Amino acid sequence: MNTVKTKICSSCESLFSCGDISVENKCWCNDFPPIFNLSDGGDCLCPACFKEACIDKIDAYVETITPKKALYNKAATLEKTEILIEDIDYYIENGDYVFKSWFHLKRGSCCGNDCRHCPY
Length: 120
Prior knowledge:
Number of domains: 1
Distance between the termini: 46 Å
Pfam family, one: DUF5522
Radius of gyration: 16 Å
Mean pLDDT: 87
Protein name: Cysteine-rich CWC
Largest sheet: 2 strands, antiparallel
Number of helices: 3
Order of helices and strands: EEHHEEH
Strand content: 5-15%
Helix content: 10-25%
């Protein structure tokens, strides 16, 4: 049986729904990169706080990447997903999608198109 739980964000203390009644054992947070361990402390975060925490953690990781390290990065080993998340995988500039370093790292190699945020 699928249930949706109402939780309180451990960061901002707002109420939010956890879980998805349409898919068993699935929650909105499963659409985000699996970069957190449950042991990272605190309870669940609301969607806004969770997204911000993901952005912060990914940005800190990307800052450590050199072209040599990019070839063997953790992002390329994560489970592949079709979902692109604004501000994590891309941002929009003048109506165009600009892919961020995280998107390129997940792909695992340079595409050769001289992308602005290519880490390779």
